[in-house]
Amino acid sequence: MARRGAAGPCVPPTASSSSSTWSSARPTSPPSPTPKFVILSAHKLVFIGDTLSRQAKAQDVQHKVMHYSNLLCEMLKEIVVTTKAAALHYPSPAASKDMVERVKDLANSTQQFRMVLGQLAAM
After folding, report:
1. Dist CA 73 CA 10 (whole Å)
2. Where are the annotated segments for Disordered (predicted)?
3. Consecutive 10-residue averages of pLDDT for the chain (123 residues)
């Protein structure tokens, strides 16, 4: 029962930081430090997933949590690259758009991971 409550509050607020990234990625405004917060929040979630997968007793739980943790890790790598490219190529709308798309993908995957963690905690 305590685990169910832990799945919600422990997860970093990636959605709110990703929405502010979208609003700050306009071609007329300089890049903001918000993507860094998105990256740090998602990194915390990867750490949580990695820890949970090692602690899980059931193989299917281990594999499911590790899958999402690895997926988020790969997405983080892509976001770091696209954020650097957006900063280097500022004010390129294409570079900013690519960064925003990656952040949207990360936000969606984060939500899926949170749902999986919630389902596993309810077991």
Report:
1. 18
2. 1-34
3. 40 47 51 70 86 87 90 90 89 89 88 85 77
The candidate with the shortest Cα–Cα distance to 82, out of 68, 65, 63, 95, is 95
- The DSSP output letter for 92 is -
Helices (H) and strands (E) in the chain, counts: 5, 0
Q: Which residues contact 13 (CB under 8 A, 6 or more apart)?
A: 41
Domain spans of the chain, in order of start: 2-122
Q: Which of 15, 40, 2, 23 is nearest to 113 (CA)?
A: 15
pTM of the model: 0.66
Question: Cα torsion at 13, 49, 72, 115 (round to 10°)?
Answer: -60
